[in-house]
Amino acid sequence: MKAKYLSLASRSMQNSLAYRVSFIVNMSASVFYILAMFFLWRAIYAHRTSLAGYSWNDMKAYLLVSFLSSTMLSWYSESRMSSRILDGSVAMELLKPIDFQAARLAETAGTTVFEGGVSAVLVTIVLIVYAGVMTPHSPAAWIAFILSFAVSVLIKFGVVYISSLFCFWTSSGFGVAWARAAITNLLSGALIPLAFFPPWLRATAYFLPFQGIVNAPASIYLGQATGAAVWGTLLVQVFWCVVLWFLGRFVWRFAVRKVTIFGG
Amino acid sequence: MSLIEVRALTKTYRQAVRQPGLRGAFRHLVHQRYTERVAVDHIDMSIERGETVAYVGPNGAGKSTTIKMLTGILVPTSGEITVDGIVPHKRRMENARRIGVVFGQRTQLWWDIPVIETLSLLRDIHEMPAQEYRKNLDFLTELLGLDEFMHLTARRISLGQRMRADLAAAFLHSPAIVYLDEPTIGLDIAVKERIRGFIKQVNRELGTTVMLTTHDLGDIQDLCRRIVIIDHGRIIFDGALAEMTDAFARERVLHFQLRTPCPTAEQELQRIPNVTVSGLSDTELSVRFDRAFISARDITGAIMQIADVSDFRIDEPSIDHVIKRVYDGTLNLAVRKGGGA
Fold first, then answer.
1. Using one digit for the tens of pLDDT, what is the confidence trace for B142-183?
2. A262 vs B14: CB contact, 8 Å cut-off?
3. Nearest-Cα residue of chain A relative to residue B121
4. Domains and CATH numbers, chain B
5. B38, B64, B103, B125: best to mutate for the A interface, most A CBs within 10 A
6. What does DSSP assign to residue B74?
7. What span, in angstroms and rounded, lies between the C-alpha atoms of B105 and B216?
8. N or C: which end of chain A has fewer CB atoms below 10 A?
9. What is this model's ipTM?
10. Three-class HEC string of A21-34
């Protein structure tokens, strides 16, 4: 990677340290959300041992992965991307010898390293304190999960980046971000596992990139995907990651005309 | 060839026409109507290496639109631009390496990290050799007094400090051209002077070409030998500042203080063609005249014969007065081109 993007990532990490309090508040919101989900599912599992192939233990692990995913590339990174477009500072970016998309990725990466660090600590605490949560079966599965999780963040970046570009046409970022979040949360499996969906929706979800954000890493974590299926899952994730990157470039080419042709 | 060449440069924007009221808003949803607004209308300009040019005009005249096209972030509707042999909007990245830009209303500093971190980030973005960075940073630090606040975050520093830091950011990578869009807006006189001193010195020592838009006429007087005035998207004057004042600031006002009241003086003077007289009191008179038609000597001579003058002074119009009148449309400058070429 070029030094300029590394440098950008490092400044972004420093910058996010200035927002550590806001991050903690944000993260505690995620914690409360996941607690609510935890108690909801516990009530559901009170009188049954298995639901759509998920045991209560599976479900707890699933919630953990979903929580981890929600803490990465949080609201902060998303709103930074959209506000850059909305407040017109995108023009300043165009005045630098730097690729807009790569620069946004570098910034997001810098912030995500910080977010990831905090989440890793939280998750370790949960795993130690609450021994009932299962972990991947083997070191190989751990590695596969970490890889899959890393790619899932890149997919999330692709989705968030493209949706932010729609801010060139809207005059507010909220609607775009909310719509984006609603679609992603449903189709990624962040709200409920895809296995609970009606067949037609499940089939649709598997054909879309969103499942690579929560469903794919969760299936590796839970050991639902083993052997060749792990490779298959990872490949599909990488495929979407690449597709979204180029789709992002394509949308950008149109979006930037709002500035370069129509003057913002 | 000049460093910046602009030929018949035009930019039109499409503007939505909305009828008033709720009905108009609904109608716009269904049926959009647009009108074309010409922001920049066939302008020509050449700027030589090392020049400092003031680009002046009332709000909405097309200054920023021109600057945006020169920097490559806005695509012209028609016409040609070359900057250092490059068409800016076609090779935006390459152009970006050679230019520095300050938009007075914006900052390129990172808000929550120390100023020096933004500068070292720019070093990496422009892929500067360590030695050049060191040299430029020392130079800028000395001229702009950056060490006062270099280790503070941009959020914590004052507006004047922020502008100094933004100037450092724009000049850091030794750009050939720097565009300054209202660099002294909202600053106090001490900071303004410091910034003007800085721009002059960089221009002199490094030969950086500077194009500056401003509403502050002190900036123009202090920095620029050449002034380009744009209004309604057209260049209405391009030439030396001194030439403009000579040619268009011909109006003078003579103020007379009389020892004894002289009620007839006003009438007498009014008979001279091309002058306007206003009596402020019995013993005070002001005479406005055009230097091209009558001299101050003639007027003074005339009044001496009828009244007992104890004191007088003469007011010359200031440059802002001239420019203000140009904006108002009361003074019509003939288009002059190629003042700096």
1. 999 999 999 999 999 999 999 999 999 999 999 999 999 988
2. yes
3. A7
4. 49-79+87-246 (3.40.50.300), 250-316 (3.30.70.100)
5. B125
6. S
7. 15
8. N
9. 0.87
10. HHHHHHHHHHHHHH
